[in-house]
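Sharing a chain and its predicted structure for anyone who wants a worked example. Both blocks are below, sequence first, tokens second.
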Amino acid sequence: MKSKRYKKLPINTKELKSDSIDKILSKIKNNCTAKFDESIDLSFRINNKQKKSEVSLRTVVNMPGGTGKTIKVAVVCEDNKIDEAKNANADLFGGDDLIEKIKNGDLNFDKLICTPSMMIKLSKLGKVLGPKGLMPNPKLGTVTNDIVKAINEAKAGQVEIRNDKDGNIGLSIGKKSFEDEKLIQNYNAIIDALDKEKSNLTIKGDLVKQVFVTSSMGVSYKIKMDKSL
């Protein structure tokens, strides 16, 4: 059953003509009538069904406007890098001891960073970390010797772009309380990241079919992109 609040929102917004993100944001914010600071979320439909294979996207993007979220970062590293992780404000850090905690199901973190030499041990925990999307990956910058950079980027607002089996990508560009400029910066960063990924793919036609934007408790609007991807 729809709430009284939801019934007051516009209807059939998906059928409206698409418009640019900067013009839609005011409508989205006006629809943010919940009592908390709603997220502004994007939903991409990509052209993942190809003749020879399905498109599988997985990359990260640094959000210049931030995410409004506090990210808890864990670092698995050698003993001589413990102080480095600690001084870079990692929330959890350790070597074999931290791996043992993770093995026992202690996953009290949002992002896991690992040095290459420790990855051999950590890779055995694929069944624990994989389903949660927490397994470090060199492509995502989470398997690295430069743990300070990785920690700083994770804390500053780095998000993962990954499509599901149906070709959908969902991610947030910030909160209602964000200035429009920051939300647009984050949106453009995501578009640029997808454009870069497309150049690395063998794909027929456009990568992105449609893009919608909504708030946590609102309704969605179709975005008109400035360029085809």
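Comments welcome. The chain has two domains: 14-57+163-222, 73-156.
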